[in-house]
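okkk here we go again. third time trying to get the S-adenosylmethionine bound version out, last two times i messed up the smiles copy paste (missing a bracket lol). double checked this time i swear
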Amino acid sequence: MTGKRSKSSDRWLRRQQKDHFVRAAHAQGHVSRAHFKLVEIDQKYKLLSGNARILELGAAPGGWTNYIEGKLSKKGALIAVDPLPITAGVHTRVLVGLAGEDEVDAEIGVLVAELDGLTLVLSDMAPNISGIRSVDQARAMELADVARTAATKWLMTGGHLAIKAFQGEGLDDWVKQTRECFKNVVITKPKSSRSESREVFVVAKGFSGVRDAFSELV
Ligand SMILES: C[S@@+](CC[C@H](N)C(=O)[O-])C[C@H]1O[C@@H](n2cnc3c(N)ncnc32)[C@H](O)[C@@H]1O
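finally!!
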């Protein structure tokens, strides 16, 4: 194909080539720069342990998955969910589909029951960007709700949740609500997250065990 690239895709390509974390990801054999964000968040907030039982939402192409697999012992477990293909090891239970849809949630529920509950829910889910800021923000907040619903359904008391979010309408209220059922909730911006991006991560530690806190909100 000889089609001309658009200006924005040229810009994206130039930025990718210059980006320190993209080059480091290639050089170190990671499938995506996203890898570094989880490394930073984990180092700061101590989320992962060898025995952790983890649900990872928005796992493709597999940067976080590979990092988590490297940290888990034989007693740990990982369920990775995405509609797109994930590079994962043989012990990871991969579910293809959209979290928040009944059928996929039912499959997650079966796997979680086999594990006797989760200790950590991670979400790097991001919506397809429309370019209309208010629409994209609303979709991102819906995904934040999907992740929090999963957490309050399947986390054991004391478990943790960490999600990607975007600064904008709805996030502050979302954080406030989350504080009602987690001991400690912070917004963090890893160095490996592009500074010009509104992307942040919310880390919520110490689930209270109250499972129906958001049943009226979703
Ligand atoms: C930024 S990427 C994730 C990168 C990944 N953490 C990594 O390290 O390679 C966002 C992903 O969220 C996925 N996604 C969006 N909505 C989803 C949903 N409802 N359930 C599961 N995955 C979803 C997309 O398909 C996309 O692969």
